[in-house]
From TrEMBL:
Its main location: other. The keyword Metal-binding applies. It holds the Pfam family CCP_MauG. It comes from Flavobacterium fluviale. This is Cytochrome-c peroxidase. Keywords: Heme, Iron, Metal-binding, Oxidoreductase, Peroxidase, Signal. It is found in: Cell envelope. Residues 296-430, 449-589 form the Cytochrome c domain.
Amino acid sequence: MKLKHFTFLFLTLGLLFSCQKNQNQKASIKQDLLIDLTKLDNEIVHFQKLVNNNSSQKEILEQFKKSRLIYKKVEWAVEYFIPETARFMNGPALDEMELEENRSFEPHGFQVIEEMIFPEYKKESKEDLIRELNIFQSNIKQLKSTFEVIAISDDYVLDAIQQNVFRVIALGITGFDSPILQSSIPEAGQSLIVIPESLEKINGDNKSLAELKKLVSKAQKYCQENSNFNAFNRSVFISEYLNPISKKLKTFQKEEHIKNVKKSSPLKPTIETLFDKDAFDVNAFVLSQEYNFTKDKSVLGEKLFYDKSLSKNNDRSCASCHHPEKAFTDGLKTNLSLTGSNLARNTPTLTYASLQNAQFWDMRQLDLEKQSVDVIQNKDEMHGSMDNIHAKILLDEEYIKLFKKAYPKTLKPEAWQIQNAIASYVRSLNAFDSRFDEYMRGNENSLNNQEIEGMNLFMGKAKCATCHFTPLFNGTVPPSYSKTEHEVIGTPNEASGKTLSPDKGRYLYNKMPQLVGAFKTPTVRNAAVTAPYMHNGVFKTLEEIVSFYNKGGGQGLGYSVENQTLPFDKLNLTVKEEQALVAFMKTLTDKKHQ
C-alpha cells in the first residue's frame, strides 16, 4: 500500500519553499507535532521496558493501545508530509513491494506489533517485538528531524486535515489499520482532535471555528459511546458527523482566503465531501495534459468503441465484449476468442475503470490508452492493427471531422489520438448517481434499513471496505487515491470444486512469490449487473461471493495459499447479515443500469 517517492519529494520541496507568513502560528503547529512525537517516543520507551520486564499481556496490550492513540493525533501530518515513513509506522502487515525494481521490503510498525501481541503474546516473540519497537523509535527520530526543517503553511495544514477526514471515512472506521484488535472506533475519534487545535492557531476568532469545535466534540463523543467495532453505525457517523465536518472545513478555508494546494490528485481540491458527485478528476491518471478528457474526445471515442473495423476481420468491436446494458461486461464466465475457444479471463466492467492506475486483472498496463491497444492488437480478442486502423481513418471524412473537433490543434488524425479517444469514452463512464450516492448526499430515503445495515457490515464486520475502498469501492487506496492495489484471495477453479485457480495473475509479469495468484481489486459499483465474478468468472451470484469471503477465502476453504493477503479467519456473518450485504451492494448500481 505504498506511496511513490516522487509524492514525498513533491510535498517536501513544496513545503520547504512555501509561504512563510504568520510564521509564529506555523511554528506553533509544528511545535505541537514535535511535542506529540516526543510523547509517542516516551510511550514506546515505556513499551520497551514492559516487554523487557516480561510484563503481562494485558499490560503490554494496554500500552500498545495507548501508544497508537497518541500516534493517531499526529497521523494527519505524518501521512501527508512524510508518507514513505508513515507506511512503516501504521501500514499493513504485508510486504512492501517495489515492482519496478523487482524487490520487496518486510513490513514494520503498529500492525506488525499488533499481530505479535494479540490475540496471544508469546514470550518467545520478545526479541522480535523489541526489534520492532527499536525500528519504530528510529522512525520517530526521522519524523522529528523532517518536521524540524520543513515549513508548514496554512494551505498545507488545511489540505492535510481534510485528507485526514477522508482517511477516517475510508480507512479509519473500516478496521484497515487495526484488523485484529479492532480498536478503530476510539482511534477514529482521536484522529479528529487536531482539527480545532490546528485551526485555532490559524485564526482563533474565525466564526466557523466554534461550529467545528462542536462538531468534532460530538463526533468524539459518538465514538466514545459507540466504541464496539461491529455494532458501530458508520452511516450515521459519516452523514451526521464527518460530512458536516468536511463541509465546515471548506467554509473555514474560504473565510480565511486560504488557497488550494496545487498537486496532481484524483480528488479535486474544491470538493466539500468525499461523496460529491464530481469529487474525482479522471485527468489525474492521464499520461500528460494533451491526453486530458474532453466531451468531444468522448464522442469520438464512443464511435470508435462501436466500430467493428477496428478488428482484423471487421466483425468485432470493443462493445462486442463490453455491453452497456451490463455495465460494460458481457454476462459470460469468459468470452470466446476469435477462433472460438474460451478466453482465460472474465470480462471486467469499464465503469469507473478510469479511476484506477492499473488495467486488466493482472494490472499489466497502467493506463487506458495502452489497455485499448492491448485488446485491439491481441490475436485472440480483436487481432487488429493500429497502423491499418489509422490508415482507414485518414480516408474517412466523418472521422476526420470528429478528430478535428476533438483535436483542433492537429492538421490530421494521429495514431495516439485513436487510443486517447477510446480511453476518453471509458473515462466518461463514471456516473456516481447510485442510490448509495444519493444517501451520502443527504437523501435519507434512498436506502432502507436492510441496505443501511449492509453498508455498516461492508465497512465494518465483513471487512469488505478494507480492500474495496469507499467511495470508489475498488482497490485505489485512499485518501490520495493514487495507487491501485492487488490482492491474493485464493479463488477456486470451480465454485463447487476442490482446486485452486491455476492462473498466476500478476506473477506472470512480475516474478515475485508474493504475487502468485494476485489480481487487481475491482470495483463493486454496478456489481449487481456484472455477474459472473472473479478473474475466472467462477461465481455466478453475489450470494456466492459473500459466502466465499465469509469462510475466509481460499485458505478458509482449505486450499494451500501461503501468500494469501485476505485474512483467512471466518467472518461469522449470519444468514441475515449476508443478505444485508448483498442488498447494500445492489445500491451501488448506477441509474442507467438499474
